[in-house]
Amino acid sequence: MTDLQSAFEQAAKDVQSLPERPDNDTLLRLYALYKQGSEGDVSGPKPGFFDFVGTAKYEAWAKLKGTCSDEAKQKYIDLVKKLRA
């Protein structure tokens, strides 16, 4: 396991114990970066029109299409560190 992967997994644990809940835009950014870092480009059908949360998550992840996994992992780690500070 690489140092980046270890740090990514630790950040995923750390995000559960943030001092305060981030705003919705930040939560979407965390979700999208995590998904891009762990699974790659968005896949599957876009959720239905009335699934507002699912659609927002899908669109946030889709915006990162083409971002390499390592870059997404590093951005996720950096964002979690910033939120913990």
From TrEMBL:
Matching Gene3D superfamilies: 1.20.80.10
One Pfam family cited in the UniProt record for this chain: ACBP
InterPro entries per the UniProt record, alphabetical: Acyl-CoA-binding_protein, Acyl-CoA-binding_sf, FERM/acyl-CoA-bd_prot_sf
Keyword line: Lipid-binding
Family annotation (SUPFAM superfamilies): Acyl-CoA binding protein
Record-annotated ACB domain positions: 4-85
Origin superkingdom: Bacteria
Keyword Oxidoreductase carried by entry: no
Protein name: Acyl-CoA-binding protein
Organism: Lysobacter arvi
